[in-house]
Structure formats: structure tokens, C-alpha cells
Design goal:
By secondary structure, the chain is α+β, with helices and mostly antiparallel strands. The protein starts with a strand and ends with a helix. The strands form 2 sheets. It has a 3-stranded antiparallel β-sheet with strand order 3-4-5. It has a two-stranded antiparallel ribbon with strand order 1-2. It contains 3 helices and 5 strands, in the order ββααβββα. A hairpin with a 4-residue loop joins β3 and β4.
């Protein structure tokens, strides 16, 4: 999913226009607004992706973060020796059912 700023032809206002997965668009817009560049996806190789499933109501990605002490500049600190980062997104009630701690 990518976004770009475009001019609304009717109002002339600038707006964010997503292209790709509609469920990822709000995440990409929010990340861009706080300064995360879309090129960040090239810095963190995705080694596994389990696509969204309507029966599971979630998706999962695993990215290589080897050799890093932070997720990104100014971002979350990673525990020493962290090699992979797993990110799950989806319906909170389904995700929480799989959590061992809340």
C-alpha cells in the first residue's frame, strides 16, 4: 500500500490518496504523517507474511530487524539481540483471544 498527496480537482485542497490494500491505508497515512518514509519497507525485509483471512480476521508479518537497537529513528527500542519482529493486525477481539497476557 502506498500513498501520495494529490490535489482535489473540485476544491483544490491537498489530500492523501492511498493505492493498494484499503485496510492498510490508514496505517500508512498515519505513519507518513508522523514522518516515517515509505522507503522504510526496504530497510526491514519481510521474511514471512500470512495474509488476511476472513475466518481468522487478522494477518501477520515477520520482518528482519537484525543488528538494530531501535525500530526506526526515534522509534521503539528493541531488546538486545532482537532478530525478527512480528506484527499482527486485525480485529482486536480475535487477536486478544490468542494472547497469553493482556
Amino acid at each position: 500500500t502506498t500513498i501520495s498527496k494529490v490535489k482535489d480537482p473540485e476544491t483544490g485542497d491537498e489530500k492523501w490518496e492511498p493505492k493498494g490494500n484499503s485496510s492498510e491505508a490508514p496505517i500508512v497515512v498515519a505513519a507518513t504523517k508522523i514522518g516515517l518514509d515509505q522507503s522504510i519497507t526496504k530497510e526491514y525485509a519481510r521474511v514471512l507474511e500470512i495474509p488476511f483471512s476472513s475466518s481468522r480476521k487478522m494477518m501477520l508479518t515477520v520482518s528482519d530487524v537484525s543488528g538494530r537497537d531501535r525500530l526506526c529513528k526515534g522509534g521503539m527500542e528493541l531488546p538486545a539481540g532482537t532478530k525478527m519482529l512480528s506484527v499482527c493486525k486485525g480485529a482486536p477481539n480475535f487477536i486478544l483471544d490468542y494472547c497469553t497476557e493482556q
